[in-house]
Amino acid sequence: MKKILSPSILAADFGYLKEEIEKTSAAGAAYLHFDVMDGLFVPSISFGMPVLQSIKKYTDQVMDVHLMIQEPIRYVEDFASAGADIITVHYEACENLKETIAKIRAVGKKVGVSIKPGTPVTVIEEFLTDIDMLLIMTVEPGFGGQSFIPESLERIKEAREIMEKNARQIDIEVDGGIYLHNIEEVLAAGANVIVAGSAVFKGDAMKNVKDFMEIFGE
Ligand code: DX5
Ligand code: ZN
């Protein structure tokens, strides 16, 4: 499956957000990752529709929106109108996941479902055929700059096996603590959409993205 980098703007300097994003796009990052946090589902608060709306004007990257919010069905339409291309919701945050997935479909966007590190991978079997992307969190959601949870590698492999068994191979996105030093084992385990915040935006974003692209061989 195509390897895709999705830089998380959570780690960017918001005083230079447009310039930083343009560097990631010029260097080959096809997606841009928006970590939306509500202070309820996760302990932190990040940003919402207005930021997405303004950034959408400056880049043609795929807007990869990660809703770390309680009962995300309430905001699916708002994020779709603000410019989301992919809307990813948390399995643990939805009263009715099937209904939430249907709502994202109804607004014509791609559907992602994310599971936290403590949620068994086996839960994906019930909705695998309904979604376009599975996001396996490789840190506890809520903050950038955390360390990669090593058990995540087994979880990625387990997800690929479940997809194999169900003859339904879809994108597996991973998010949290991914750097040049651990990206190869993450790819080897079966992930193909890579979220990187600190690894891209702490330092020279253009060079950092190019380094990932080189490893991707894209
Ligand atoms: C956690 C966030 C982070 C962020 C990326 O809720 O979702 O994982 O995107 O963080 P780093 O800086 O580790 O790439
Ligand atoms: Zn994220």
From TrEMBL:
Known pathway: Carbohydrate degradation
Stretches of the chain forming a coiled coil according to its record: none
SUPFAM superfamilies to which the protein is assigned, alphabetical: Ribulose-phoshate binding barrel
InterPro entries named in the record: Aldolase_TIM, Ribul_P_3_epim, Ribul_P_3_epim-like, RibuloseP-bd_barrel
Presence of the UniProt keyword Metal-binding in the record: yes
Signal peptide positions (record): none
Binding site for substrate: 8, 66, 142-145, 175-177, 197-198
Residues holding a divalent metal cation: 33, 35, 66, 175
HAMAP family for the chain: RPE (MF_02227)
Protein name per UniProt: Ribulose-phosphate 3-epimerase
